[in-house]
Amino acid sequence: MRTAKPPVIQIRRVTKSYGHGDAVVHALRGPVTGGGEPLGVDLDVAEGDYVAVMGSSGSGKSTLMNILGCLDVPTSGRYLLDGTDVGHLDEGQLALVRNRKIGFVFQSFNLVPRTTALAQVELPLAYAGVRSAERRRRAMAALGLVGLADRAGHKPNQLSGGQQQRVAVARALVTAPAMLLADEPTGNLDIRSTEEVLGIIDGLNARGRTVVVITHEDEVALHAKRVLRLVDGAIVSDVRQAPVDGPPPALAAAGVVA
Amino acid sequence: MLRFAVAGLAANKVRSALTMLGVLIGVASVILLLAVGNGSSVAVKDSITSLGTNALTVSSASSRGSATAAKKLTVEDAKALATAADAPSIKSVAPVVTTSGTALYGNVSYQPGQIVGTYPAYFETANLKVDKGDYFSADDVLNSRKVAVLGSTTATELFATEDPVGKRITIGGTPFTVVGVLRTKGSTGFNDPDDVVIAPLPTVQNAFTGFGSVNQILVQASSAESTTEAQADITRILMGTHAVKDATKVDFRISNQTSLLSARESTTRTFTVLLGAVAAISLLVGGIGITNIMLVTVTERTKEIGIRKALGAPRAVILGQFLAESTLLSVIGAGLGVLAGIVGSHFSVVGIKPVVIPESVLGAFGIAVAIGLFFGSYPANRAAALRPIDALRHE
């Protein structure tokens, strides 16, 4: 066991609320005290884990995802990403954290329009200041990993939904981030593309990448090693489906061991 | 970054082109209108030198219709000026009579703008040069010979391509031999100085005006600096010949070409400033066009900005990208504007040949680029300041 390693994500008593006074809405609140005060959400995610966060609309899972991805700041509480307290970082440093430590995969792909797949994948590297030749090499490697090396010159409108999402996955992993954060990655995909994308994510996790997937689909959750359920801004269940340092369940079941 | 900017602009070709057109018109109009203003003041300056900066015109004040019968200017006045021993500032004197009439050559009939009778000194004082033939001489004047020097317009009208020198023309029944043709001076405004026939004074007096008064006396000062001195000398001498005691009641006027024309020059300067102001406003409007289009672009691409921010784009990169786009718009627009302005200045506008001021080209280009930066910075800042979460949610 590698329990000695610090968790990639450490969240302590994090709350997020919108509005003021009577109109205040707690999107994330955790357990509530007798007096109605939200205690906040606590969550640790270990390196190499594959976590699915489930919940219905309005359960706070997207808010959690935005906070985990440093796109939004919590109202209160502490968030340590890879040992760094991101609560004390300014905008520029947050941009750096997003660039180096987090790879995003969105439900709506969110590719940059009119830009070739290769340029898409090179983008985070460009922001990180990687040299052109090195950028190209790593981007091609990432595209190869998602099986799209032959589509490098295609623009988003020349790719299918599944291909676009695979480009997005390649873009997310090209910087070798500490964590891959996927928000409903298969929400807009058909069954075949869903399998393709999940297969790629499983493979990444099998190679040790920490993955957090936000989803409301049980089939997606089956791929995860650990499943969290959110209701009304609080974690109501935390089920482990497979050990942290083993292969993801889908690959284990198929008999493929990393 | 530049490649991104080009791609961004290329995505909306019509919109980019129209925005550039705004800047183009602004820059081109600054260059062109300033060139027109400058051209007209250059024309005025040319006409100052062409009239001779040393020239002073003495004319009778009686034409003003004053109650007292003013004494007209006469050849004697001119002689008094010419022979005055105590007036070293006066270099030469030429009495002038002007009249009009129809000139005939063969079966060609033409009415020149002016028929001038004068002395040979007139040519030098009025800065007239002969192109063909020669001036008439003092001897021609003394002998009242029927000779004439033609302005280039008159010569062309009467003789077309023929060489007029030595030919005989008839003006008002009197035959004249053409001895010379003047070099073209070019129009300075309302009257054509080349549309003229110049003949010896007594000849013209004999044939047309009679031996009475003269219209003007053209005096050449010894230098441009001594015109004021010459003016004082003329006043003193003519007060003597006209028996006027009171300097405020003189019956003649002395006008200095230089002062006359510098007044006109200041008018054209005002004109230039006015044109420049109008052009500057259109440049400003072009700049506002850039802001407008960039704001639309930022709104349209909010989601893209969000994606880039989620991928870790620093603020400076987003800022730079949109600034690059707006600056590119203005640079291309301004470049084309400079081109259009320079091409446009090759055509004369309402009779004025525009003269491009090099500073105005650099200035207009520089200001347009600065406007792109300045007016682009607001939308770019707005884009860069977007919170990634808000930008990503934007639909």
Automatic annotation (TrEMBL), chain A:
CDD domains: ABC_MJ0796_LolCDE_FtsE. Residues 9-257 form the ABC transporter domain. InterPro entries: AAA+_ATPase, ABC_transporter-like_ATP-bd, ABC_transporter-like_CS, ABC_transpr_LolD-like, MacB-like_ATP-bd, P-loop_NTPase. One of its GO terms (cellular component) is plasma membrane. One of its GO terms (molecular function) is ATP hydrolysis activity. Keywords: ATP-binding, Nucleotide-binding, Transport. Pfam families: ABC_tran. PANTHER family: ABC TRANSPORTER ABCH.1, IMPORT ATP-BINDING PROTEIN. This is Macrolide ABC transporter ATP-binding protein. The lineage of its organism: Bacteria, Bacillati, Actinomycetota, Actinomycetes, Kitasatosporales.
